[in-house]
Amino acid sequence: MTQRISIDPITRLEGHGKIEIFLDDNGNVSNSYFQIPELRGFERFVVGRPIEEMPLITNRICGVCPEAHHMAAAKAADAAYHVDPPRTAKMLRELLYMGFYCTDHTTHFYALGGPDFVMGPDAPVAERNILGVIHKVGLEIGGKVIQMRKYGHTVVEMIGGRKVHPCTAIPGGITKGITAEQRKEIEEMGRWAIDFALFSLKIFNDIVLGNKQYVDLVLGDVYTHRTYYMGMVDENNKTNFYDGKVRVVDPNGKEFVKYAPNDYAEHIAEHVEPWTYLKFPYLKKVGWKGFTDGEDSGVYMATPLSRVNAADGMATPRAQEEYERFYSTLGGRPVHQRLATHWARLVELLYAAERWVELVTDPEITSPNIHTKPTEKPTEGIGIVEAPRGTLTHHYWTDERGVVTKANLIVGTTNNYAPIQMSTNKAARSLIKDGKVTEGLLNMVEMAFRAYDPCFGCATHSLPGQMPLQVTIRDKDGNLVDVLKQFC
Amino acid sequence: MTKTIIIGLGNPILGNDGIGWVVAKEVERNLPKHVGHLDVEFLSLGGLALMEHLIDYDFAILIDAFKSDEVSGSVLALHLEDMPNYSAFHTTSTHDVSLQNALLVGRNLGAKLPKCVMIVGVTTEEVFEFSEELTPEVRAAVPVALRAVLDLLENPARCD
User: Fold this and answer.
1) Which of A36, A197, A410, A438 is deepest in the core (most CB within 10 A)?
2) Which strand (E) or helix (H) includes residue A443?
3) Ramachandran class of A227: left when φ > 0, alpha when ψ lies in -120 to 50, beta otherwise
4) Greatest mean pLDDT range, A12-21, A34-43, A458-467, B4-13
């Protein structure tokens, strides 16, 4: 029923995550469309500003991952000025980033993705939330979650100068180091974070893996797609969030390409659909074949699950053990079941905590050598980091004064737009039969996209701070059959 | 002594979404005397992260842009508990819980949180374009919103 799918762009301005489902003659799903409200005009907004301002401005794109934008922009500014920061500066940036990662992954597991498993996908909505988790697992768990967040914020503030929007990364390095006293404090917090990550994995093991119904849900076909997977790796092909090369593996887990950040445009292209402003990135050398799985389709995913799929292992010992357990339990690499992303996120949490301690115990971490002065004229720079919700690319062109003349950003969620569309579509198809809408549709569809942890930047800070979702179901003639709303 | 926090919420580079910061800056410049311990903060946060900033305060005033059917630039002042808790304990937000739920979580864990959280909102259309400017009708609401915040600070019956 594609002729009916002429969604007025104005509807996007309502700020809703919007899913339009179209039924065929028999009342089965003909197609569905997941729309993300997009913030516009950022590339235009930054033109005419000095590139050194980019780490400060871009971290205000949204309130969810300012640290990721700060780092990607700083790396792009390093590249534009042709300057390599000293080792200590890079370690401090990465250490800050590990504090952020631990905070972000913790919040997602306990407050957002986890309740579906800890409480059960069919639990009443009044229980399927962080309060329910606290009541079920114990008050102690809530205190630990808040403590983990506090430690993460503290590291970001100590190195980044501010609790929320860090401001210390500049072209060539960082503006402030840490004292021996701070180093000790950060180390203690990092060791606590490792224990917390192990504790979180134990909860997942006991509650999710110990329940056959949940394991069946994770391994079920509804949430499975065989796509390419993207993630940043170090020189040993182990996961790294801050630096390295971008590696893509095919649906069989074989390396398809590994490229340096500067070469991203050779490998990534963007597909345009008439029903959304947001573009769908895909692998240029495979090509766009539509919203479809398999080796012949250029659709790729960039999430915690795709990062572990794209890596040969984790660079820290305990995370490596968990990585091995993950794949031995789920039947080998790669894992295609999207709900396994929640487990992969916890493996990454452990890696981030271990890496935190590794960095803060490096003898050079308190070195005063934290900045290399740029001496060359700036030109063009690309910076890539792994944001918690996907590979984040910042690309700036400047004039010889360092004033930005053009910018291009590919944010984490954008990478995943095509697979999110595929997952919500598949969930809808499996749940709507013969015109009957399954009651659990909304949550099952939500679960499909929640695993991706998509970023709707605009909804994160405005009160009351919820991402509204509306599912509209239409018959073959486009007439309204049902509207399921949440927070609209 | 009563500890009060005033928070300008929003994104200062997202047009009218920056109204909370602008009003909070005006509050800083026009602070009344004898209001006890008072802090002013500027944040782009919600949910748990916002709740964590309210710990150890007795009274909080949050200033933010509101999407509403009211004419753009209208000023609203209301108790947090009078606002709809859209999440109804659910977690549809992909990144955070609602502030109401975050406060419940905090209180469950024994955190000292304000007994009274007031919201001063300025209505605007949805904001999706990057800009550092407010529209004229929203800018005109700044003195009205400032007055609303100062009234809340000075009025002892504010939380009744």
Assistant:
1) A197
2) helix A441-450
3) beta
4) B4-13
Considering only the beta carbons, identify the residue of B84, B96, B128 that sits closest to A460. Answer: B96
Is B3-154 a domain of CATH 3.40.50.1450? yes
Burial class (CB in 10 A: 0-12, 13-18, 19+), A294: middle
A23 and A436 Cβ atoms separated by less than 8 Å: no
Tokens 């309204």 -> residue: A480
CB A168 within 8 A of CB A161: yes
Is A42 at the interface with chain B, CB within 8 A? yes
Between A89 and B160, the more confident residue is A89
Phi, psi of A219 (to 5 degrees): -85, -5
Strands A469-474, A480-486: pairing kind: antiparallel
Q: What share of chain B is helix, strand, coil (3-state, %, to 5)?
A: 35, 25, 40
- The answer, as to whether pTM is greater than 0.95, is no
% chain A with pLDDT above 90 = 58
For residues A437, A443, A447 and A452, what is the CA-based torsion angle, rounded to 10 degrees?
A: 100
Q: Hey, how many other C-beta atoms are within 10 angstroms of the C-beta on B115?
A: 10
- Give this complex's ipTM: 0.73
Q: Please state, in angstroms and rounded to a whole number, the distance separating the CA atoms of residues A413 and A77.
A: 23
B141 inside 8 A of chain A by CB: no
Token duo for residue B6: 């005033």
- A16 reaches B (C-beta below 8 A): no
B68 touches chain A (CB under 8 A): no
Q: Which of residues 47-106 of A touch B (CB under 8 A)?
A: 57, 60, 62-64, 66
Quick: pLDDT tens for A375-385: 999 999 999 99
Domain coordinates in residue numbering, chain B? 3-154
If you compute the radius of gyration of chain A from its CA atoms, what whole number of angstroms results?
Answer: 22
At A14, the pLDDT band (50, 70, 90 cuts) reads: very low
Tokens of A89: 């500066």
Amino acid at B10: G
Q: Count how many pairs of residues, chain A against chain B, have C-beta atoms within 8 Å.
A: 182
- Verify whether the Cβ–Cβ distance B130 to A45 is below 8 Å: yes
Q: Which helix (H) or strand (E) holds A199?
A: helix A180-203
pLDDT per position as a tens digit, B48-91: 888 889 999 999 999 988 876 678 899 988 888 877 654 433 33
Question: CA A266, CA A136: separation in Å to the nearest integer?
Answer: 50
Instruction: Dig out the tokens for B24 from the structure.
Output: 């909070």
Q: In which order are the strands placed within the sheet that holds B37-43?
A: B37-43, B3-9, B59-67, B116-124, B75-79
pLDDT tens, residue by residue, B103-155: 888 888 888 999 999 989 888 876 667 788 899 999 999 999 999 999 999 87
Q: Can you list the alpha helix ranges (DSSP code H) found in A23-160?
A: 42-46, 54-57, 66-80, 87-107, 115-118, 130-137, 139-160
Q: Counting runs of H as helices and runs of E as strands, what totals does chain B give?
A: 5, 5
Which residues 429-488 in chain A show a CB within 8 A of chain B? Answer: 446, 449-450, 453-456, 458-469, 486-487
Pairing of strands B3-9, B59-67: parallel
User: Residue B97's pLDDT band (boundaries 50, 70, 90)?
Assistant: low
